Amino acid sequence: MGYILCMNVFEFRNLLNSEDRKEKRKSFIRSLIKSVETGANGTQDYIVKKGSGKNKIAKTRQ
To answer: What integer is the mean pLDDT of 5-31?
Structure first.
């Protein structure tokens, strides 16, 4: 705690600038992430291929 009180103006400005750069980098990375739609292209439901329930959506994964 004592060091923070003794910090000069130059160190304080550098600290603020580095924090600002970190926030900008984080927001940029977040903007690159694309959300995905669950269930798109059959990724959530499973269709029975063989048997009496052919071409029906399975309720549980087996």
So the answer is: 87
What residues does each domain of the chain span?
A: 2-58
Please return the burial class of 46, using the count of CB atoms within 10 Å of its CB with bins 0-12, 13-18 and 19+.
Answer: middle
Total-model pTM: 0.42
Is residue 56 a contact partner of residue 47, using CB atoms and an 8 Å limit? yes
Distances (CA, A) of 58 to 1, 11, 17, 26, 39: 61, 62, 55, 41, 14
Model pLDDT for residues 11-20, shown as the tens digit of each residue: 889 999 999 9
Q: Which one, of 39, 40, 58, lies nearest residue 50 by Cα? A: 58
